[in-house]
Each structure stands twice: as C-alpha cells, then as structure tokens.
Amino acid sequence: MGVGEPWARYLRALGREPLPSALVDLDALEANVDRLLAPVVASGKRLRLATKSVRCPAVLERIASRAGETVIGLMTYTAGETAYYAGEGAAALGAASAIARDLLLAYPTVHPADAALLAEANRHAHAKVVVDELAQLAPLAAAARQAGTSIPVVIELDLGWRPLGRALHLGVRRSPLRSAGEVLALARAIAAEPSLRFAGLMGYEAQLAGLPDTAPTRAWQNPIKRALKRGSRPAVARARAEAIRALGAAGLAPELVNGGGTGSVAWSSGDETLSEITVGSGFLAGHLFDHYAELAHAPLSPALHFALQAVRRPAPRLITCHGGGFIASGATGEDRQPLPVGPPGCRLLAAEGAGEVQTPLALPAGVEVALGDPIFFRPAKSGELAEHFDEYLLVRGEHLEARAPTYRGLGRRFLG
Ligand SMILES: Cc1ncc(COP(=O)(O)O)c(C=O)c1O
Fold first, then answer.
1. 210 lines ligand 1 (CB under 6 A)
2. Among residues 10, 138, 290, 308, which is most buried (max CB within 10 A)?
3. What is the pLDDT at residue 308?
4. Residue 205 Cα to ligand 1 middle (Å)
5. Is 50's C-beta closer than 6 angstroms to any atom of ligand 1?
6. Distance from the CA of 106 to the center of ligand 1, in angstroms?
7. Which of 25, 29, 31 is nearest to 10 (CA)?
8. What is the pLDDT of residue 312?
9. Over 90: is that where the pLDDT of 331 sits?
10. pLDDT tens digits, residue range 130-175?
11. Exposed, middle or buried, 135 (CB in 10 Å: 0-12/13-18/19+)?
12. Dihedral angle at the C-alpha atoms of 348, 352, 355, 358, nearest 10 degrees?
C-alpha cells in the first residue's frame, strides 16, 4: 500500500463529518489482532486485553470477537473501570461480554472507596487486583469483609534488570518485590486473610514490552537498548520461575502468571513461566509501536488516526490546523507528539509542536491544502486519544462502517 493511499481512503470515509474526528481503520485493526494473536496461540497461552490501551468497549468487542477463546479477560486500570465491567459495562462489550467475567486490575489502590468497588465487583465477576506490599492488603480485606465477598489478589514481582546492582535499574518503578522470598512472604499474608484469596503472580517485563529500540529520535541509543534487552531476558525468565517454584513449594501455586506486552509479545509467549500474555497498544498501534525490533518482521498496521481542520495559511508552505495537542504520557519528548501522516510529508514545526488549539505544519513541495481540508495524524500512544473524543469512526476501506463511543462518550472518565 502506498504511503498516500490510506490517507486518501480516510478522506473519503470522513466525508462531511465534523472536525476534529478520530478514525479506527478496521482492516488494520483486524490485521493487528491476527498478528499479535499468532504467537500467543502458538504457545497455547491466553491473551488478556489491556483496556487502557483501547478505552472503547465496541473496539474491545471487535478485538475479542476476532481473537476468540484465546482471550481470557481484561486487564483494567482503575477500580472504577473494574466495577463498570463487572456491572453494566459488560453489555457494552456486546458479543464479547463474557470477557468481563475475568478482570485483573493491574495497578494497586489503597483507597477504601476503590476497595469497596472491588469487593462489590466480586459478586458478579472474578475481579482481581494487583498488590506488592502488606499495607495494601488491609483496605481490601476490610472492604471484602464488609461486603461479605472475597477479593482475589495477584502479587506483582519487579522484573527491572539491574546488571550493575542498584546503580542501574532498567525497567519501571512499581513493585518493590524483587525476590521469590519476598513474593512468598506476601502470598502467605494474603492466604492468612480470610476475605482475600491469593490468585497469582504478575511479572511485567516493561523494559522488553514498552521500550522502543529502533526509534528515529535518539537513534544512537537503539543498539544499547537492544543489547540491554538481550541481557535482561534470561533474568526476567529466571526471576519469574524462581517465584513460581517458591510459591508451589509452599502450597501456594499461582493460578495465573501474567506478563508481556505488545513490544514483547513473541518473546513473552515463548517464556514457559507465563500462563497469559497482556496485549493492548498493538491493536490500535500508536506510532511509538512502529519502533520495536521484535515487531519488525511483521510490522503492525496503523489503525488509529485523527483528523484536524486546516484553518490558516501563515506563509506559503505552511498551514495551521485547529487543535491537535494530544501529547502522550510518559517521559516527555518529541516522540510523544502526534505524527502527521496525511497528506504525506507534512511536518510539525520544532518551535511549536502540536498545540492545544493550533498546530502548524510545514507542507512538502507540490502538496496543496485548502482551508477546511482534513489533515490526518497518528497519536503516539493507543489509549489516550479516547480521552479527547466522544466517539471513534470505524472505517472499512473508504466507508464509514459504524460509530463507537469511547469511555468519554459513555460519560466514563476512569482516571478522573
Ligand atoms: C501491567 C502491564 N502489563 C502489560 C502492559 C502492556 O500493554 P500494552 O500492550 O498496551 O503495551 C502494560 C502497559 O503499560 C502494563 O502496565
């Protein structure tokens, strides 16, 4: 497919829709589902959908329906979202509503209101929550006692790689638990609490799954990142295996062992310690996921775009769009900006970037843009765009096939 071709299709599909609009390319989405599912199916593991990287129930339904029984459930990101899917949100998943019965909140919470939501959610679903220290257990246990339910709890093992001891930590800063012994001690505390149930282990290898290593910005770092990834893999597999062994020996064998992410889907699927692989970002394929060596042999297809209106012409080879500052979270840098893709060859200006209400672009030679024309961009990350749009236009070829409300369109803003 030529670079310009999707843009021309989106232009026709968009018709006279108001701008800005956000579009999901269904053919690209389905190609990504097939692409990401293949290694998981080949390994005989299950796939857990990371909702934060989608934030649109109808799109989750399409992913889950295509992936079929390999999908075990959802990885949620707040207690409110867990409660939503344990209740009315399951219906929003349409034909895939069964996946809302297995929920894993991957990020701890100690707020009593959240704990109450989780305790209540367990009346309708298996609503698990991740913990990594003793102090997180008390609010959960109290809420479960109060509700007369039991909360299944998953322990997160930190898999950051420290080749030089504490001087270098390659990975995310989440769980303090680094050893099998520490995991086992917490699992014992969970098992001793009648209103909690030890349900499993999560070991998220963020430095493999979420670190671009063929990126065009700071490209000199790419070989170093790839070397660090290579070095870290055996340590990741070993740490997970040791924790599983220690738990099993103590009669606390984990029901589930969750790990992986879009950027490590093949390697993580091949790691025998895991029972399930989480994937989210790769389905809509924000542009950060263009830059992973592990995905390079079968690149993901850009499936999420937004269109802005060209409203001004500040100089002959410049146009300025209305809106556009949808900057992705994380360590801020150029790579978190949206990427203009249509017309091909447009560039953000270094001095302004993508602005909240105005986004100027340099036009390539030979490209003319009329005032009112849509300009197409890709977001850096896959989930956060849904916080800026009430609905996604689901596009097939050059036709608008359906409209799908995002969490925002459904009146749900789980991150406040
Ligand atoms: C705990 C956990 N698992 C897995 C993932 C991978 O998700 P994705 O495929 O969206 O990168 C994430 C993403 O941040 C995560 O926080």
1. yes
2. 308
3. 98
4. 9
5. yes
6. 9
7. 25
8. 98
9. yes
10. 999 999 999 999 999 999 999 999 999 999 999 888 888 999 999 9
11. exposed
12. -80
Ligand 1 centroid to Cα of residue 160, in Å, is 14
- Smallest CA separation from ligand 1 atom 5, residue: 261
Give the tokens for residue 217: 């910005």
For residue 194, the 8-state DSSP code is T
Q: What mean pLDDT is reported for the chain?
A: 96
Is residue 228 predicted with pLDDT exceeding 80?
A: yes
Tokens of 166: 């504490």
Global pTM reads 0.97
pLDDT at 1: 38
Asked whether 261 lines ligand 1 (CB < 6 A), one says yes
* CB of residue 278 inside a 6 A radius of ligand 1: yes
Helix, strand, or coil here: 63?
helix
Residue nearest to atom 2 of ligand 1 (CA): 204
State the Cα–Cα distance between residues 85 and 90, nearest whole angstrom: 5
What lies within 8 Å, CB to CB, of 120 at 6+ separation is 83, 86, 147, 149
Number of Cβ within 10 Å of residue 192's Cβ equals 10
**pLDDT of amino acid 4:** 52
Query: Is the C-beta atom of 258 inside 6 A of ligand 1?
Result: no
* pLDDT, position 3: 44
Segment 206-232 shows an average pLDDT of 95
CB of 274 sitting under 6 A from ligand 1: no
Q: Give distance in angstroms: CA of 262 to centre of ligand 1.
A: 7
Place of tokens 């009669």: 251
